[in-house]
Each structure stands twice: as C-alpha cells, then as structure tokens.
C-alpha cells in the first residue's frame, strides 16, 4: 500500500532543489519543486495514483473524471485514473490544453471528459493557483461541474486560498514544508 512518507521522500530526493529560481508564477524562490521528476516516474505514478484516489474517495466529491492544465496535471490525472481502474467507481482522465488546437476539432479539453461530469481538477504543484483556475474556466465553459482541486504539493504560498476564494475546495497530498523537512 502506498504511503505518504514514501511520496514525500521521493519528492525530496528527485524533485526538490535549493538555489535561486523564478517560478512559473513569476515569483522568486529559494526552493524549486520539479514534481514532474516524480510524477512521471514509475514509482511516483504508483504512489500518486493510489494516494490521489484514496484522497478523492475520502473527500466525498464523487467525481467521474480528473484532469487539469497540461503538462503538470497530466501524469497526476493518468495515475489516478489508472489506479481507479479496478475500483468500484473508476474515474476518467482528461487534459486541458493551454489553447485550443488550430486544426481538427479545435478542442480545448482532450480525452474522455463529458459535459455534466463532476470533476476534480488535479495539479502537480500549487503556488498561486492560476493553473487550476485556468483549467476551471475551461472545464466550466465545457459543461463540467468542479468538485474541487487535488494537488500533489501545496507550496503554501497563497494558491490554496486563491482557489478557496473562488469556491474551490483544495486537498493537497503534501506540502513544500513536508518535503523540505526530508531534504539532506
């Protein structure tokens, strides 16, 4: 069974770096968490799938699908969907493009998302919450009902509060402080 401490340790070993960094939000930070180094690894996918699915089941959100803004959300959504495959209530994964395709069906949301789905937006790392808000806008515009946001890591830099101010409950599997505590 997947343990949170295993995920925190993996994130500390693979994804957390100290130095001087400019985050996607434009903020400067002495800590960078490149969660993709964990979320795209076999061990990370297993842990995140099981822990994410467990968190969603405990939330009572009763979602049919999970997804968020590409690229950070993609492996998280896929891991949860895969982990749910043998559960009594499997969930589907989808991805939200940063802009609609200019060809084909010109969709903004790809995958088996369906109008009316109750959705959990997923994120690898929440800093300001802007990626989740962009995903929420696209999902709502396409008929999705947003239950909340599930993040692998909350940096505790105001993103959770920004999302909650917009009526979006937030669950985080872990925090930046939990990861920093495990850095060597």
Number of strands: 8
Q: How is the CATH topology of the domain at 51-174 named?
A: Rossmann fold
Q: Helix content range of the residues, please?
A: 25-40%
Average pLDDT, rounded to a whole number, is 95
The portion of residues forming beta strands comes to 25-35%
Notes on the structure:
38% of the residues lie in helices and 27% in strands. The protein has a domain at 51-174: Rossmann fold (3-Layer(aba) Sandwich), CATH 3.40.50. Helix 4 links the parallel strand 3 and strand 4 (92-96). The protein is of the alpha/beta class and 184 residues long. The strands form two sheets. The chain has a six-stranded mixed β-sheet, with helices on both faces. A two-stranded antiparallel ribbon has the order 1-2. It has helices at 4-14, 36-39, 42-59, 73-84, 130-141, 159-165, 176-180; strands at 16-22, 28-33, 65-69, 92-96, 109-110, 118-126, 145-154, 170-175.
Topology of helices and strands:
Elements: H1 4-14, E1 16-22, E2 28-33, H2 36-39, H3 42-59, E3 65-69, H4 73-84, E4 92-96, E5 109-110, E6 118-126, H5 130-141, E7 145-154, H6 159-165, E8 170-175, H7 176-180
Parallel strand pairs: 3-4, 3-6, 6-7, 7-8
Antiparallel strand pairs: 1-2, 4-5
């Amino acid at each position: 069974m997947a343990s949170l401490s295993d995920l925190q340790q993996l994130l500390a070993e693979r994804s957390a770096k100290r130095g001087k960094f400019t985050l996607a939000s434009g903020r400067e930070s002495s800590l960078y968490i490149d969660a993709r180094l964990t979320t795209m690894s076999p061990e990370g996918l297993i842990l995140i799938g099981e822990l994410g699915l467990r968190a969603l089941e405990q939330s009572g959100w009763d979602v049919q699908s999970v997804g968020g803004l590409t690229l950070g959300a993609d492996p998280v959504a896929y891991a949860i969907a895969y982990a749910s495959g043998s559960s009594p209530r499997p969930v589907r994964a989808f991805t939200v493009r940063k802009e609609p395709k200019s060809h084909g069906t010109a969709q903004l949301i790809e995958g088996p998302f369906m109008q009316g789905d109750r959705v959990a937006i997923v994120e690898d790392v929440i800093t300001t919450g802007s990626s989740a808000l962009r995903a929420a806008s696209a999902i709502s515009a396409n008929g999705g009902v947003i239950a909340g946001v599930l993040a692998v890591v909350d940096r505790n830099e105001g993103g959770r509060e920004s999302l909650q101010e917009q009526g979006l409950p937030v669950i985080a599997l872990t925090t930046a402080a939990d990861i920093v505590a495990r850095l060597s």
